[in-house]
Amino acid sequence: MTRIIVALDFTDLNQAFECVETLSPAHCKLKVNNSLFTRGGPEFVRRLVDLNFDVFLDLKFYDIPNTVAQACAAAADLGVWMLNVHALGGLMMLRAAREALNPYGKKAPCLMAVTALTSYHEAEWTSLGFKKGIEDSVLSLAQLAYDAELDGVVCSAAEAALLRQRFGTSFCLVTPGIRLPEDAKDDQQRVLTPEMALASGSDYLVMGRSITRSSDPSALLMRLNAELSKQRTDEQNTDRSL
Ligand code: C5P
Fold it and tell me: What global pTM score does this model have?
Protein backbone atom coordinates (compact mmCIF):
# COMPACT_ATOMS: atom_id res chain seq x y z
CA MET A 1 0.00 0.00 0.00
CA THR A 2 1.39 3.40 -0.96
CA ARG A 3 1.74 6.15 1.63
CA ILE A 4 2.31 8.92 -0.88
CA ILE A 5 -0.39 11.38 -1.89
CA VAL A 6 0.60 13.45 -4.93
CA ALA A 7 -0.73 17.02 -4.74
CA LEU A 8 -2.02 17.96 -8.20
CA ASP A 9 -1.36 21.66 -7.73
CA PHE A 10 -1.83 22.62 -11.37
CA THR A 11 -3.71 25.67 -12.62
CA ASP A 12 -4.43 24.00 -15.95
CA LEU A 13 -6.60 20.88 -16.19
CA ASN A 14 -4.75 19.53 -19.24
CA GLN A 15 -1.43 19.81 -17.44
CA ALA A 16 -2.95 18.01 -14.45
CA PHE A 17 -4.10 15.18 -16.71
CA GLU A 18 -0.75 14.97 -18.45
CA CYS A 19 0.79 14.43 -15.03
CA VAL A 20 -1.87 11.88 -14.01
CA GLU A 21 -1.18 9.89 -17.18
CA THR A 22 2.39 9.31 -16.00
CA LEU A 23 1.18 7.95 -12.64
CA SER A 24 -0.31 4.67 -11.47
CA PRO A 25 -2.88 4.10 -8.68
CA ALA A 26 -0.55 1.37 -7.41
CA HIS A 27 2.16 3.94 -6.72
CA CYS A 28 0.31 6.97 -5.35
CA LYS A 29 -2.94 8.55 -4.28
CA LEU A 30 -3.95 11.98 -5.64
CA LYS A 31 -4.91 15.24 -3.92
CA VAL A 32 -7.25 17.74 -5.59
CA ASN A 33 -7.15 21.25 -4.10
CA ASN A 34 -9.84 23.92 -4.26
CA SER A 35 -8.22 25.72 -7.20
CA LEU A 36 -8.25 22.63 -9.41
CA PHE A 37 -11.72 21.67 -8.20
CA THR A 38 -13.04 25.15 -9.01
CA ARG A 39 -11.76 24.68 -12.57
CA GLY A 40 -12.54 21.02 -13.15
CA GLY A 41 -15.50 20.42 -10.85
CA PRO A 42 -16.97 17.03 -9.93
CA GLU A 43 -16.31 15.76 -13.49
CA PHE A 44 -12.59 16.09 -13.01
CA VAL A 45 -12.73 14.19 -9.70
CA ARG A 46 -14.90 11.45 -11.22
CA ARG A 47 -12.37 10.96 -14.02
CA LEU A 48 -9.62 10.36 -11.47
CA VAL A 49 -11.84 7.99 -9.47
CA ASP A 50 -12.75 6.14 -12.70
CA LEU A 51 -9.03 5.67 -13.33
CA ASN A 52 -8.98 3.82 -9.95
CA PHE A 53 -7.03 6.49 -8.08
CA ASP A 54 -7.72 7.07 -4.40
CA VAL A 55 -8.59 10.77 -4.34
CA PHE A 56 -8.13 13.13 -1.40
CA LEU A 57 -10.57 16.01 -1.97
CA ASP A 58 -8.79 18.84 -0.16
CA LEU A 59 -11.59 21.43 0.02
CA LYS A 60 -11.33 22.14 3.78
CA PHE A 61 -15.06 22.56 4.45
CA TYR A 62 -15.86 25.21 7.10
CA ASP A 63 -19.46 26.34 7.54
CA ILE A 64 -22.50 25.76 9.74
CA PRO A 65 -22.99 22.08 10.65
CA ASN A 66 -25.87 21.45 8.24
CA THR A 67 -24.01 22.86 5.23
CA VAL A 68 -20.80 20.98 6.04
CA ALA A 69 -22.77 17.75 6.45
CA GLN A 70 -24.29 18.25 2.99
CA ALA A 71 -20.87 19.01 1.47
CA CYS A 72 -19.36 15.87 3.04
CA ALA A 73 -22.16 13.71 1.64
CA ALA A 74 -21.66 15.31 -1.80
CA ALA A 75 -17.94 14.45 -1.66
CA ALA A 76 -18.73 10.89 -0.57
CA ASP A 77 -21.11 10.57 -3.53
CA LEU A 78 -18.16 11.38 -5.82
CA GLY A 79 -16.42 8.27 -4.49
CA VAL A 80 -13.43 10.07 -2.99
CA TRP A 81 -11.14 8.21 -0.60
CA MET A 82 -10.46 11.13 1.77
CA LEU A 83 -11.90 14.58 2.47
CA ASN A 84 -11.28 17.28 5.04
CA VAL A 85 -13.02 19.91 7.14
CA HIS A 86 -11.67 22.65 9.43
CA ALA A 87 -11.51 21.69 13.09
CA LEU A 88 -12.15 25.39 13.80
CA GLY A 89 -15.76 24.73 12.78
CA GLY A 90 -16.18 23.25 16.28
CA LEU A 91 -17.44 20.03 17.80
CA MET A 92 -21.01 20.30 16.48
CA MET A 93 -19.79 20.82 12.94
CA LEU A 94 -17.30 17.96 13.19
CA ARG A 95 -19.98 15.63 14.55
CA ALA A 96 -22.35 16.66 11.76
CA ALA A 97 -19.63 15.81 9.22
CA ARG A 98 -19.08 12.41 10.85
CA GLU A 99 -22.80 11.64 10.95
CA ALA A 100 -23.22 12.62 7.30
CA LEU A 101 -20.74 9.91 6.33
CA ASN A 102 -22.14 7.15 8.56
CA PRO A 103 -24.69 5.97 5.94
CA TYR A 104 -21.79 5.17 3.59
CA GLY A 105 -20.54 2.46 5.97
CA LYS A 106 -17.26 0.91 4.89
CA LYS A 107 -17.32 2.98 1.70
CA ALA A 108 -17.23 6.26 3.67
CA PRO A 109 -14.22 8.45 2.82
CA CYS A 110 -11.59 9.02 5.52
CA LEU A 111 -12.70 12.18 7.31
CA MET A 112 -9.81 14.43 8.27
CA ALA A 113 -9.59 17.75 10.09
CA VAL A 114 -7.30 20.68 9.34
CA THR A 115 -6.09 22.15 12.64
CA ALA A 116 -4.14 25.41 12.17
CA LEU A 117 -2.97 26.25 8.66
CA THR A 118 0.82 26.14 8.53
CA SER A 119 0.81 29.53 6.82
CA TYR A 120 -0.09 31.22 10.15
CA HIS A 121 2.63 32.99 12.08
CA GLU A 122 2.32 33.08 15.87
CA ALA A 123 1.53 36.83 15.84
CA GLU A 124 -1.17 36.46 13.21
CA TRP A 125 -2.72 33.57 15.12
CA THR A 126 -2.95 35.51 18.38
CA SER A 127 -4.24 38.59 16.53
CA LEU A 128 -7.30 36.49 15.68
CA GLY A 129 -8.11 36.38 19.40
CA PHE A 130 -6.86 32.89 20.25
CA LYS A 131 -5.50 32.74 23.79
CA LYS A 132 -3.24 29.75 23.19
CA GLY A 133 -0.25 29.67 20.85
CA ILE A 134 -0.30 27.65 17.64
CA GLU A 135 1.12 24.40 19.01
CA ASP A 136 -1.28 24.24 21.98
CA SER A 137 -4.14 25.22 19.68
CA VAL A 138 -3.23 22.42 17.26
CA LEU A 139 -3.44 19.96 20.16
CA SER A 140 -6.83 21.30 21.28
CA LEU A 141 -8.19 21.25 17.72
CA ALA A 142 -6.89 17.71 17.14
CA GLN A 143 -8.59 16.72 20.42
CA LEU A 144 -11.90 18.08 19.04
CA ALA A 145 -11.41 15.98 15.88
CA TYR A 146 -10.63 12.93 18.01
CA ASP A 147 -13.68 13.50 20.24
CA ALA A 148 -15.92 13.83 17.17
CA GLU A 149 -14.53 10.50 15.93
CA LEU A 150 -12.90 11.86 12.82
CA ASP A 151 -10.29 9.58 11.27
CA GLY A 152 -7.40 11.95 11.84
CA VAL A 153 -5.83 15.29 11.04
CA VAL A 154 -3.72 16.99 8.41
CA CYS A 155 -0.69 18.37 10.24
CA SER A 156 2.90 19.44 9.87
CA ALA A 157 5.30 16.50 10.12
CA ALA A 158 6.96 18.49 12.89
CA GLU A 159 3.80 17.99 15.01
CA ALA A 160 3.29 14.36 14.05
CA ALA A 161 5.27 12.77 16.88
CA LEU A 162 3.38 14.76 19.52
CA LEU A 163 -0.01 13.96 18.00
CA ARG A 164 0.88 10.28 17.57
CA GLN A 165 1.86 10.08 21.24
CA ARG A 166 -1.34 11.82 22.38
CA PHE A 167 -3.90 10.08 20.14
CA GLY A 168 -2.42 6.63 19.49
CA THR A 169 -1.81 4.59 16.40
CA SER A 170 -5.30 4.48 14.91
CA PHE A 171 -5.55 8.29 14.53
CA CYS A 172 -4.50 8.99 10.94
CA LEU A 173 -1.85 11.69 10.35
CA VAL A 174 -1.45 13.22 6.90
CA THR A 175 1.56 15.48 6.52
CA PRO A 176 2.51 17.95 3.77
CA GLY A 177 5.79 19.91 3.71
CA ILE A 178 7.87 16.96 2.49
CA ARG A 179 11.02 17.47 0.48
CA LEU A 180 13.71 15.16 -0.83
CA PRO A 181 17.22 16.07 0.38
CA GLU A 182 18.11 17.36 -3.10
CA ASP A 183 14.95 19.51 -3.49
CA ALA A 184 14.43 23.26 -3.06
CA LYS A 185 12.20 24.24 -0.11
CA ASP A 186 10.17 26.66 -2.30
CA ASP A 187 7.55 28.42 -0.18
CA GLN A 188 7.56 25.77 2.59
CA GLN A 189 9.26 26.79 5.83
CA ARG A 190 9.67 23.64 7.90
CA VAL A 191 10.27 20.64 5.65
CA LEU A 192 11.04 17.00 6.45
CA THR A 193 12.27 14.21 4.21
CA PRO A 194 9.87 11.29 3.55
CA GLU A 195 12.01 9.11 5.79
CA MET A 196 11.89 11.60 8.70
CA ALA A 197 8.14 12.16 8.29
CA LEU A 198 7.41 8.42 8.43
CA ALA A 199 9.72 8.00 11.44
CA SER A 200 7.87 10.79 13.27
CA GLY A 201 4.55 8.99 12.88
CA SER A 202 2.99 10.17 9.60
CA ASP A 203 0.64 7.72 7.89
CA TYR A 204 0.46 9.53 4.56
CA LEU A 205 2.86 12.02 3.01
CA VAL A 206 1.51 14.76 0.75
CA MET A 207 4.10 15.50 -1.91
CA GLY A 208 3.57 18.06 -4.64
CA ARG A 209 6.44 19.64 -6.49
CA SER A 210 9.02 16.97 -5.52
CA ILE A 211 7.03 14.55 -7.65
CA THR A 212 5.34 16.71 -10.27
CA ARG A 213 8.57 18.51 -11.22
CA SER A 214 10.56 15.30 -11.47
CA SER A 215 11.67 14.17 -14.95
CA ASP A 216 10.31 10.67 -14.20
CA PRO A 217 7.58 10.84 -11.52
CA SER A 218 6.71 7.16 -11.87
CA ALA A 219 10.28 5.93 -11.30
CA LEU A 220 10.68 8.33 -8.37
CA LEU A 221 7.45 7.08 -6.76
CA MET A 222 8.50 3.45 -7.15
CA ARG A 223 11.83 4.20 -5.47
CA LEU A 224 10.17 6.14 -2.62
CA ASN A 225 7.52 3.44 -2.06
CA ALA A 226 10.21 0.76 -1.85
CA GLU A 227 12.28 2.83 0.60
CA LEU A 228 9.29 3.68 2.80
CA SER A 229 8.00 0.12 2.94
CA LYS A 230 11.47 -1.14 3.86
CA GLN A 231 11.67 1.51 6.58
CA ARG A 232 8.24 0.48 7.95
CA THR A 233 9.26 -3.21 8.02
CA ASP A 234 12.55 -2.36 9.78
CA GLU A 235 10.66 -0.27 12.38
CA GLN A 236 8.17 -3.08 13.01
CA ASN A 237 11.00 -5.59 13.43
CA THR A 238 12.73 -3.25 15.90
CA ASP A 239 9.45 -2.83 17.87
CA ARG A 240 9.05 -6.62 18.06
CA SER A 241 12.58 -7.16 19.33
CA LEU A 242 12.18 -4.55 22.12
O1 C5P B 1 4.62 21.17 -3.57
P2 C5P B 1 4.46 20.83 -2.13
O3 C5P B 1 4.97 19.46 -1.76
O4 C5P B 1 4.97 21.92 -1.21
O5 C5P B 1 2.86 20.76 -1.93
C6 C5P B 1 2.29 20.57 -0.66
C7 C5P B 1 0.81 20.42 -0.77
O8 C5P B 1 0.27 20.28 0.54
C9 C5P B 1 0.09 21.61 -1.39
O10 C5P B 1 -1.06 21.08 -2.07
C11 C5P B 1 -0.35 22.43 -0.21
O12 C5P B 1 -1.50 23.19 -0.47
C13 C5P B 1 -0.66 21.33 0.80
N14 C5P B 1 -0.60 21.77 2.20
C15 C5P B 1 0.53 22.31 2.77
N16 C5P B 1 0.50 22.68 4.10
C17 C5P B 1 -0.61 22.49 4.83
C18 C5P B 1 -1.74 21.91 4.28
C19 C5P B 1 -1.70 21.54 2.94
O20 C5P B 1 1.55 22.46 2.11
N21 C5P B 1 -0.59 22.79 6.11
Answer: 0.95
Q: What is the pLDDT of residues 52-103, one digit of tens each?
A: 999 999 999 999 999 999 999 999 999 999 999 999 999 999 999 999 999 9
Asked whether 154 and 84 are in contact (CB, 8 A), the reply is yes
Distance 219 CA to ligand 1 centre (A): 22
For residue range 136-172, what is the model confidence (pLDDT) as tens digits?
Answer: 999 999 999 999 999 999 998 888 999 999 999 999 9
Question: Which of ligand 1's atoms lies nearest the C-alpha of 188?
Answer: 4
Whether ligand 1 lies within 6 angstroms of the CB of 194 is answered as no
- Report whether residue 112 contacts ligand 1, using a CB cutoff of 6 Å: no
Contact 72, 85 (CB under 8 A): yes
Report CA(127)–ligand 1 centroid distance (Å).
Answer: 24
Instruction: Report how far ligand 1's centroid is from the alpha carbon of 151 (Å).
Output: 20
d(CA 110, CA 112): 6
List, in order, residues 6 or more apart from 71 with CB less than 8 Å away.
59, 61, 63
* Coil/strand/helix, residue 205: strand
Name all domains of the chain by residue range, CATH numbers in brackets. 4-241 (3.20.20.70)
Residue located nearest, by CA, to atom 19 of ligand 1: 176
